[in-house]
């Protein structure tokens, strides 16, 4: 666990040093769990958003986009169940006076058990070498099986207790597991109670006439209340989807782990409207489709896993998370939920307006069922960034810090470097820069020795470096250097754009999903 904490601290420090993420209002000592995306961070975030949008909307003829307002009529949240059911279990430590999510305390305990499993796997892999069969080891090693059964039993009990809102049993579970406060080390806990996560605000010119509103805790409801508007104006035929990217706000009990859990965050969601009775097949299909999207970025299948929910949300009849191996363990990255007709049915009930679809194939009206895919853009950013940050020992005895962001997502696609600041090399380099900047975000750097500039671009995550030297003046070729392998090849200036395109264009990466 200590190594995990050290690795995560390096991620946070690197994000600031290289212009990815800053603490919000830092000159005023910051605001808890609120962050600003810096010059490189905003580019990475935009690229992730675009990569998702192209895969979800542009490549599906039956999925369209939407950008709904953050403010919504307050009855929206009564119909959606958020006013009555959007709660997290809260527990306080009496000695440290610190507040925690009770379920997260238990999940962190389970994560420590899972870390023991990983340790056993690492030891066995070293012992058996190339003959090591991980799947067989997990299925047959008595100690590992014991750990897995222990973790599973804890999560199952937690899920059942939360589903029944048996908060007394949640506290009892914390006590039985002897979970201590991370700050005080004591086990002196209060009772567990529910805490509503929505931010309240007001809309109106004067206090006595203002309407009580909420900052939206999710983007999905904007899609549901616009279901018929989109369906009719777009002449959409079921099955079809509506996708949206937007800000949401949650008054988290404990917002922590950098940008993993924030009070202001961005979601990328798609609601897929289907005929009732077909939800199981669509649910499985979207699980497969979404996992392919993640794997297309090349961050390693070993870093992803599905986790089926023990406790289902009030709107779901099936739910699973795609979990990612963050520096602090496997955590939820994306949710796939079969939401039934809960949302449209409730909005129909509370609004008094029919939200039904006439199906020409069956000649009937019905309220569609929904399968949802929902991914946190900020969490995806953290997954990409933390997985990419690596320390490498080189053959010459030196080391380098490299940010191996998938080239398709990299903030800067290439850096153009004149070998020296004379002999006409900067002019040639600037010409290459001017030609490439129309298509890609390109850097130009002529300060320091070229080796130092390579290291700087490695640490910033730039996948390609184009070096202009004296040979360029003779034969119109440049050196193209690849960040990940550090391989250098000589290419004609006329082929630079094609080479860059093959490395970074989204179409080549998205085709991996086929």
Total beta-strand segments: 23
Quick one: overall form? globular
CATH architecture assignment of the largest domain: 2-Layer Sandwich
Question: Structural class, please?
Answer: alpha+beta
Pick out the low-confidence regions. none
Q: What is the count of helical runs?
A: 18
Overall pLDDT, averaged? 93
User: How does the major sheet shape up?
Assistant: 7 strands, mixed
Distance from first to last alpha carbon:
38 Å
Assign the CATH class of the largest domain.
Alpha Beta
What CATH calls the topology of the largest domain is BirA Bifunctional Protein, domain 2
Q: Tell me the number of structural domains.
A: 3
What can you tell me about this protein's structure?
This protein is of the alpha+beta class. The protein has 18 helices and 23 strands. The strands form seven sheets. Strands 3-9-10-16-13-12-11 form a seven-stranded mixed beta sheet. It has a five-stranded mixed beta sheet with strand order 20-19-21-22-23, sandwiched between helices. Strand 12 (318-326) and strand 13 form a beta hairpin. The radius of gyration is 26 Å and the shape is globular. 33% of the residues are buried.
Question: What topology emerges from the helices and strands here?
Answer:
Blueprint: H1 2-17, E1 21-23, E2 35-37, H2 39-58, E3 63-66, H3 75-79, H4 82-85, E4 87-92, E5 99-101, H5 102-128, H6 134-140, H7 142-163, H8 167-176, E6 193-196, E7 200-203, E8 211-214, H9 220-225, H10 227-233, E9 240-249, E10 264-274, H11 279-295, E11 304-308, E12 318-326, E13 329-340, H12 342-351, E14 357-359, E15 364-366, E16 369-376, H13 377-388, E17 389-393, E18 399-403, E19 414-418, H14 425-436, E20 442-444, H15 450-460, E21 464-468, H16 470-475, E22 477-482, E23 488-492, H17 496-504, H18 506-510
Parallel strand pairs: 3-9, 19-20, 19-21
Antiparallel strand pairs: 1-2, 4-5, 4-6, 7-8, 9-10, 10-16, 11-12, 12-13, 13-16, 14-15, 17-18, 21-22, 22-23
């Amino acid at each position: 666990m200590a190594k995990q904490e050290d690795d995560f601290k390096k991620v946070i420090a690197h994000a600031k040093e290289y212009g990815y993420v800053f603490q919000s209002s830092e000159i005023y000592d910051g605001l808890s769990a609120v962050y600003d995306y810096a010059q490189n961070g905003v580019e990475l975030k935009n690229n992730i958003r675009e990569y998702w949008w192209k895969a979800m909307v542009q490549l599906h003829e039956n999925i369209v986009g939407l950008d709904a307002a953050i403010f919504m009529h307050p009855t929206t949240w009564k119909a959606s169940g958020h006013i009555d059911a959007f709660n997290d279990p809260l527990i306080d430590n009496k000695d440290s006076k610190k507040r925690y999510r009770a379920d997260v305390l238990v999940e962190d305990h389970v994560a420590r058990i899972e870390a023991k499993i990983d340790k056993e796997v690492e030891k066995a892999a070293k012992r058996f070498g190339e003959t090591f069969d991980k799947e067989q080891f997990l299925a047959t090693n008595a100690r590992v099986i014991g750990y897995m059964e222990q973790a599973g039993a804890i999560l199952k009990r937690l899920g059942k207790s939360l589903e029944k809102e048996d908060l007394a049993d949640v506290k009892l579970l914390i006590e039985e597991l002897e979970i201590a406060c991370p700050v005080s080390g004591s086990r002196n806990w209060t009772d567990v109670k529910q805490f509503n996560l929505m931010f309240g605000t007001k809309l109106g010119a004067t206090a006595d006439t203002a309407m009580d509103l909420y900052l939206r805790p999710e983007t999905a409801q904007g899609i549901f209340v616009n279901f018929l508007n989109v369906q009719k104006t777009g002449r959409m035929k079921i099955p079809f989807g509506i996708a949206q990217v937007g800000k949401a706000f949650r008054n988290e009990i404990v917002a922590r782990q950098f940008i993993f859990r924030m009070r202001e965050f961005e979601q990328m969601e798609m609601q897929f409207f289907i005929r009732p009775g077909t939800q199981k097949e669509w649910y499985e299909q979207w699980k497969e489709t979404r996992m392919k999207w993640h794997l297309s970025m090349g961050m390693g299948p070993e870093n992803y896993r599905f986790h089926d929910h023990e406790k289902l949300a009030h709107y779901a009849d099936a739910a699973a998370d795609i979990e990612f191996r963050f520096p602090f363990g496997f955590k939820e990255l994306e949710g796939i939920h079969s939401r039934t007709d809960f949302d449209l049915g409730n909005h129909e009930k509370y609004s008094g307006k029919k939200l039904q679809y006439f199906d020409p194939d069956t000649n009937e009206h019905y309220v569609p069922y929904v399968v949802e895919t929902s991914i946190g853009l900020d969490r995806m950013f953290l997954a990409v960034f933390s997985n990419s940050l690596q320390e490498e020992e080189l053959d010459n005895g030196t080391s380098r810090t490299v940010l191996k962001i998938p080239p398709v997502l990299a903030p800067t696609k290439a850096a153009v470097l004149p070998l020296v600041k004379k002999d006409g090399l900067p002019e040639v380099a600037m010409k290459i820069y001017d030609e490439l900047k129309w298509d890609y975000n390109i850097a130009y750097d002529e300060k320091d020795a070229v080796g130092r500039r390579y290291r700087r671009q490695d640490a910033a995550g730039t996948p390609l470096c184009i070096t202009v030297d004296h040979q360029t003046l003779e034969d119109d070729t440049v050196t193209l250097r690849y960040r990940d392998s550090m391989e250098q090849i000589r290419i004609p200036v006329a082929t630079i754009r094609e080479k860059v395109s093959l490395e970074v264009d989204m179409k080549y990466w998205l085709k991996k999903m086929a």
